Amino acid sequence: RWVLSLECKGSRNFMSALRRAVEVDFKDKDKHKSQGLYLLTTGIPDQETQTISAYVAEACGGFDLQLHVCLFSVTKGTDSSGVIPARYSNPRETANAFKEIVQAANGRFHWFGEAGIFESDDITSIVSEMEKAKNYSQKCAFLVESLKQRS
């Protein structure tokens, strides 16, 4: 509910926000079995990916905290805020950086834009399960067919 009262503002200082969330907002983290932190973003953090990944691995490793990232790629020319990020990267580099950070946090990565979904760990997992089910079904059908031929 408190999220609804928030306003979009700030910078891409990911480390500052993450430290705030982990060290202040999750002060009662030992009382909970698992927790998730969701980052909704449109660009790369100011800090280097390796630095963030190391911190995230350490912060999330002490208890069951997962960092999930939802990256929204904005079409060029639609940024009305006029804020120029301190660090620039193209969409693919940004996605790769967040995938690395998410892996360090045992989280999930989702990348989408106005055109639709570019990449999603959840969808990849579902497709993988469907492929396994299809392969299993084909093996079962082959086994049934071979049993029929023996009879």
UniProtKB/TrEMBL annotation:
Domain of life per record: Eukaryota
Protein's recorded name: VWA3A protein
Organism: Hippolais icterina
